Amino acid sequence: MMLTTAIRARLPLIAIRTNDPLNIGKVLEAYVGHPVTPLAQARMKTMIISPTLPTDSVSYVMGDYPIDPFRTFSDAVEHNACLIIVNPEEVHPAMFDAGTITMPNAMIEDFVGEYAPEDADCYSLEAALRGSSFKEMVELAKLAMAESGAFTAEAVLKVRRERTVLSSGLRLVDTNQHYYAPPQELFDWLNVGGRLFTANVDRVIRPRGLLFNGDPGTGKTSAAKFLAHSLRLPLYLLDVGGTMQKYVGESERTFQAALMQIEALAPCVMLLDEVEKVFDNTDDTGVSRRVLGTLLWWLQENTTQVLTIMTTNNSDQIPPELVRPGRIDGAIRFEKLTYAQALPFAEALRKSLTNVCEVEQAVVEQELREAYRKCGLWSQAEVTQAVIVSVQCKLAESLKE
């Protein structure tokens, strides 16, 4: 974290931003590792005339900085002190801008350890709370208990989907699925890459991401949900189009802000859906190319625990530099189903539907045979639709009776 490094380096004036000023003291202490001294505004006014920062101290003040920041800067250098300015109106040139701070992971772990039930999945719960402030973490825990009756990762993520404000283009995705049959390649990756991603290994060893390639409806987005659910991590959709803004330079800044928030939310899975439609080289303004450059740099240099999943209906339309080794780890091809493959998929889906098992397997198979003669190979979405149609028709008949 840049704030920890800046304090360790004893930078004289550091500007930070937070949406939880009430708990900033305990958050800063977690970053520093020892108590941090709050300075009252009245004392700050006297420092305009005669700055007196304690030697070898780390202090903080709320609101705007002293009227004479250059003099305070000199005083901090002389006394080897570090003064943190919380939520200044603007960052003065004498300050180091440490940006928006989030709650340290150690505080999240302590909170979960104290308040989570004994049988809780602490890893998933900690991941669900990442990126929140201390105030938000307490609120999420209480709201999860009120709505779901349990302080669990699923309950926390449900609350966050309903109330958390994310950067433009960023959305928390529900990973619960009624039924999904992943390809064997996805299971194989989870057995190796999935274990390495969640383990405490060197970032060079940790997987970076995957490309899911296949025709529409073959289960690529569902596979991203399955992957995140299997890894016990939240899934965030980064809609690049949603970051596009009206004014010059705003799109790049909005996209960069979304990536920075993803880093703060790590560990997590990030989904870039249908990337060939985003970077198709038809943008004459150059915005897409600049956004692509930002993404390429981030994929290459990002060190946080973020697994990037990209989906495409046509891998030939993707810029080759987007999926080269070092940015993602490989690709999984999603194929359509033959009739022999569609039958067990349809039967498993039929059995998973609530209160419709009285719809006979033969009814579903008949629907499949009739549709298969028209379509040939099937996507999972087409098989699912055929099952739903056959069930709807049968149930409609029973309701007439």
- The helix count comes to 16
Name of the CATH first level of the largest domain: Alpha Beta
Named at the architecture level, the CATH assignment of the largest domain is: 3-Layer(aba) Sandwich
Q: Into which percent range does the helicity of residues fall?
A: 40-55%
Alpha-beta content class = alpha/beta
Question: What layout of secondary structure does this protein have?
Answer:
Elements: H1 2-8, E1 13-17, H2 24-32, E2 37-38, H3 41-49, E3 58-62, H4 69-78, E4 82-86, E5 96-100, H5 105-115, H6 122-129, H7 134-148, H8 153-163, E6 170-173, H9 184-198, E7 209-214, H10 220-231, E8 235-238, H11 250-265, E9 268-272, H12 275-278, H13 287-301, E10 306-312, E11 330-334, H14 339-352, H15 361-375, H16 380-400
Parallel strand pairs: 1-4, 1-5, 2-3, 3-4, 7-10, 7-11, 8-9, 9-10
Antiparallel strand pairs: 6-8
Helix pairs in contact: 5-6, 6-8, 7-8, 9-10, 11-13, 14-15, 14-16, 15-16
